[in-house]
């Protein structure tokens, strides 16, 4: 499983409309996101329009390809593109990915495995 986090910036003057577009998202777009294999998908909005997105997937390249070929996703992203600062291309494809540097579960599992190895000797 891959965890993906990305960052975009929403134009401050369009924040209210951006929020309205997500309350709710089109049902057919929600279905496409799920069909692409993305799950546990969230968006978080910070000061100044900073937008952080997060999702999990088994194959991010396949999920990206599925959405890139989806007419529903193309329509959604065409309507959403104007909301973002300095973005060229489809928002879903052009968002800036963030590098994961810490994940609690992974580190707990590694620590448990290390502790277990120490007791086997």
From TrEMBL:
GO terms for biological process: rhamnose catabolic process. GO terms for molecular function: racemase and epimerase activity, acting on carbohydrates and derivatives. It comes from the Bacteria. Coiled coil: none annotated. Transmembrane segments: none annotated. PANTHER family: L-RHAMNOSE MUTAROTASE. This is L-rhamnose mutarotase. It comes from Microbacterium ulmi. The lineage of its organism: Bacteria, Bacillati, Actinomycetota, Actinomycetes, Micrococcales.
């Amino acid at each position: 499983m891959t965890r993906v986090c990305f960052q975009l910036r929403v134009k401050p003057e369009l924040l209210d409309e951006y929020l309205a577009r997500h309350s709710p998202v089109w049902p057919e777009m929600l279905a496409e996101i799920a069909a692409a294999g993305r799950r546990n998908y969230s968006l978080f909005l910070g000061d100044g329009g900073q937008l952080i997105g997060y999702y999990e997937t088994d194959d991010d390249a396949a999920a990206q390809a599925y959405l890139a070929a989806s007419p529903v996703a193309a329509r959604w992203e065409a309507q959403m593109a104007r909301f973002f600062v300095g973005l060229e291309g489809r928002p879903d494809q052009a968002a800036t990915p963030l590098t994961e540097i810490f994940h609690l579960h992974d580190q707990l599992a590694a620590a448990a495995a290390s502790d277990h190895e120490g007791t086997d000797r």
